[in-house]
């Protein structure tokens, strides 16, 4: 696997699970099958697994790396590689999503603190006093 493969898989997973391009499709699946497809298409970890599987199946066609097996059961080994690529992609998508949620939370918290700090405390106190006097 190379860096391009990883970034493409994370990007595809993000496009499917978190952008407005697929929002109507995700909403439709939430209504049709909320307990399976609705969850699958809204979960970066779950969808990351299946994106990894699809990328792994088509990787010999796009030649991102070489699948040379010197074992007795190449079909079985190919299946293991596909499964492991799905697991790997799922893990990477989970880590990227975790990082994204963390950064979003930190920046939102900073924005809220800035709003509180930027507000003029004297004007706020006057407004509170005027409300209490009325």
Description:
The chain has 134 residues and is mostly helical. It has one domain. It is 80% helix and 0% strand. It contains six helices and no strands. It has helices at residues 3-18, 23-32, 37-40, 44-62, 74-118, 121-133. α1 crosses α4. The chain is elongated. The N and C termini lie far apart (70 Å). Mean pLDDT is 76; it is low at 62-66.
Main traits of this protein?
single chain, mainly alpha, 6 helices, 80% helix, elongated
Q: What can be said about the biggest beta sheet?
A: none
Mean pLDDT score, rounded?
A: 76
Task: Report the β-strand fraction as a percent range.
Answer: under 5%
Global Rg? 24 Å
String of helices and strands? HHHHHH
- Give the total of domains: 1
Taking pLDDT < 50 over at least 5 consecutive residues as the criterion, the unreliable ranges are: 62-66
Helix content: over 70%
Write the layout of secondary structure elements.
Blueprint lengths: L2 H16 L4 H10 L4 H4 L3 H19 L11 H45 L2 H13 L1
């Amino acid at each position: 696997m190379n860096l391009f493969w990883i970034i493409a898989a994370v990007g595809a997973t993000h496009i499917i699970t978190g952008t407005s391009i697929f929002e109507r499709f995700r909403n439709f699946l939430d209504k049709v099958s909320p307990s399976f497809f609705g969850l699958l298409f809204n979960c970066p970890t779950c969808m990351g697994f299946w994106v990894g599987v699809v990328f792994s199946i088509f990787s010999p066609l796009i030649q991102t790396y070489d699948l040379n097996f010197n074992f007795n059961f190449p079909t079985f080994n190919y299946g293991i590689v596909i499964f492991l690529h799905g697991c790997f992609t799922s893990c990477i998508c989970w880590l990227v999503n975790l990082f994204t949620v963390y950064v979003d939370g930190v920046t939102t918290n900073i924005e809220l603190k800035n709003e509180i700090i930027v507000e003029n405390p004297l004007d706020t106190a006057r407004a509170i006093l005027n409300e209490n006097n009325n």
